[in-house]
Amino acid sequence: MALIWGSSFLFTELSLQLTTFFGVAFWRTALGGIAMVLVGIALKQAFPKTASQVFHLWIAGLLMSAIPFSLFSYAQQSTTSILAAIIGAATPMFTLLAILVIYRTERITANILLGLAIGFVGVSITLAAWQGFGDNDPIAILALLAATVSYGIGAPYIRKHVTPMQLPGVTTAAVQVSTSALTLLPVYLLTGPLFVAEPRVETVGALLALGVLGSGFAYSLFHGVIAKAGSATASLVTYTNPMIASIWGVLLLSETLHWYEPVGALVIVLGVWIAQRSSGKR
């Protein structure tokens, strides 16, 4: 799961050479949904049967797929894949905030407040706040942060409303991303050309990998981790994304890794570690 999602930032960069940012979000959910539906049928696994189950999976899809996929794709039009991955690494911090403020399943402690404060300092370092936003478009940065907040709200939502369904990870992922694709389809069709360039092997391959692996199989694994270890622990997978994205970004996309980006990422990790030391929810 870490390898797939860490590579998704590379796949997004390549996919943006083929279609629009809404197109990337649509195709990755559509392809992921098709793949998981076929796997679920082949394995004869149970699919959601009630309107309530489908509704909660649709909400989970909005928070974990449709909204963040669109925002990350939009932002990566003008930011590096490395920066996108590092901001995404703040997901556990926003997951903990959501657990505290929205779901209220934990009490606020001094460790949590200190850890969250350190985490926000880490985000500021990553963005080189002393330089403003540097060469980055402020709207793109806000899109990255909004996407990360969406993930932070979505993971505990899955824990609260989807995990109790006790459905297989394959079929929950299938419905989650399929409903996202249906939601994104009219937006994709109404906001511009379906494709912006002639297809190439690498761009089509990247979009297929992004959909089948990043939005299909990875989410089936993610549901299993949430069921066994909780949303806070499941969101920790984002810690590995910057390392994997940085390797691909430097080697394959000729991106520059600034000294303050890995420093900020380490501070974010430190902050969330401190905050979760007193956390009973994993």
Describe the biggest sheet?
A: none
* Helix/strand structural class: mainly alpha
Q: What's the helix-strand series?
A: HHHHHHHHHHHH
Specify the overall morphology.
globular
Instruction: Give the CA-CA distance, first to last residue.
Output: 18 Å
Radius of gyration, taken over Cα atoms and rounded to an integer in Å: 18 Å
Extract low-pLDDT stretches. none
Q: Summary?
A:
With 282 residues, the protein is mainly alpha-helical. The chain has 12 helices and no strands.
Structure description:
It is a single chain. By secondary structure, this protein is an all-alpha fold. It has one domain (2-87, 137-251). 74% of the residues lie in helices and 0% in strands. It is built from twelve helices and no strands. The protein has helices spanning 2-15, 21-42, 51-75, 81-88, 91-103, 110-126, 138-162, 169-190, 201-229, 231-234, 241-252, 260-277. Helix 1 (2-15) packs parallel to helix 11. It starts with a helix and ends in a 5-residue tail after the last helix. The mean pLDDT is 87.
Question: What are the defining features of this structure?
Answer:
74% helix, 0% strand, mainly alpha, 282 residues
List the helices and strands and how they pair.
Elements: H1 2-15, H2 21-42, H3 51-75, H4 81-88, H5 91-103, H6 110-126, H7 138-162, H8 169-190, H9 201-229, H10 231-234, H11 241-252, H12 260-277
Helix pairs in contact: 1-4, 1-9, 1-11, 2-3, 2-8, 2-9, 3-7, 3-8, 4-11, 4-12, 5-7, 6-12, 8-9
